[in-house]
Design a protein that fits this description.
single chain; about 90 residues; mainly alpha; 3 helices; about 0% strand; elongated
């Protein structure tokens, strides 16, 4: 698939987020699949590409976010132990 088709399919597909759908489910995906189909990409390939994009766009920020959350919990636990270790007069 040419890069220009990929970029245009993505940009046209993101216009689907403007649709007033509950939870925004389906607007972007439908727009991207429709844009790819309009540019001549077979429907099965377009569907797989959009699902792969959605899986990556969900999991890519989630995994580092989980690591950051666990690190933050450790830091806060250190603050709490330092706070309880103080002697107040």
């Amino acid at each position: 698939m040419p890069v220009a088709v990929l970029v245009m399919g993505y940009f046209l597909g993101t216009l689907g987020s403007l649709l007033p759908l509950p939870g925004g489910i389906g607007g972007v995906e439908g727009g991207m699949i429709g844009a790819f189909a309009a540019f001549g990409v077979p429907g099965s390939q377009a569907l797989i590409a959009v699902l792969a994009y959605r899986a990556i766009s969900f999991w890519l920020p989630t995994l580092p976010g989980m690591a950051g959350y666990l690190s933050l919990r450790s830091t806060v636990r250190g603050w709490q132990s330092a706070e309880t270790g103080r002697v107040t007069a």
